[in-house]
Amino acid sequence: MLNIALFGPPGAGKGTQSEFLIKEYNLFYISTGDLLRKEIKNQTKLGKQAQSIIASGGLVSDEIIVQIIEKTITDNPDANGFLFDGFPRTYIQAYILEGLMIKLNTSLNCLISLDVTEEESVRRLLHRGKTSGRSDDNEVVIRNRLKEYREKTLPVLKFYKDKGICFDVNSEKPIPEVKKSINKIVKDELSKRLLNIVLFGYPGSGRGSQGRAIAKKYGLEYVATGPMLGEEIEKGTEIGKQVKELYENGQLVPDEIVVQLIEQKLENSKEIKGFIFKGFPRTLVQSYILDGLLKKHGSSLAKIIEIEVPTLELIRRLDERSKTKDCMPYDTSTAKIVKRLQEHEYKTVPVIEKYNELHGVVKIDGTGSFEEVLEKISFEIENGFKNLR
Q1: What are phi and psi of 83, to 5 degrees?
Q2: What's residue 296's pLDDT?
Q3: Which are the contacts of 142, defined by CB distance < 8 A and separation ≥ 6?
């Protein structure tokens, strides 16, 4: 997800540049003023609260504004990202947005500040007043608005400069040059991002074979907990000895061990385009762990894919696999197969539902041939790469 805040004093050209960013990067536009008017028009609960405050001459509280913004983001899971215009407007709102982004498992990628001198702003707005007939475009009002912008907004710019994601653009240059500068900033930020994918599906859906094929095709690091644990056992490491003992006693490997291995993989994998996770996260707890691990390493999930296969077809596939060298421990009887499918439903389906609510989950029909399913997944992967560029 690509999230950008666009700043600039009145007359800096935010409207023109907003249109460019929305079209170029398929972003959902978030203007607090527009959102408030929409909520009031639709007479939602928040809209009624805001209308009452405005009618009494008050300012709409940050508490109401942040709820409206959160609702807008969660109501648009298919958006490639969001463009914030007019928020955060104050230092406090900057902290509010930080907290909201963390809650939604995302972050603000960059704040772009359109720089223009006060005299140029005044000149542009006075010209606009002549052509648009706007009564507020007179010099006294304009200079008051610019003064308010400086007093309230400059601390916000410092907040993001300290984080290293605030970029200044000279907005007095011709519009094409300003667009070019903005485009370079966004592309530079996108180049730092990894394409991290979680591949979901019931046992027998083909996650393993598809995951390995995708990793090879697109230069992604394949992360599967089963093979990683097996490798530790084979090497005879301390972790491998612990895992072997757990297996021998019929116990599950705790998250503490799995997380160590995944973190090692994240740290040791260099010059790659991203990771594809298979078999992790398997539970809600593990989903929060993965989100935290990726955030710690300055990354996040870019795409979640679920391969869908009818239950009877899953059972048929797993029964066939039980007769081959690829037989898994849960393939050895129909009862074990059903139990494993039920376990996925109880533990992993809630994880998929969580991700679907936050980011959107791409559903892939897994009933075709291996090549057909790979082609469908590849189409989604390539769209993901396109969004990262």
Answers
A1: -110, 115
A2: 80
A3: 10, 11, 121, 122, 125, 126
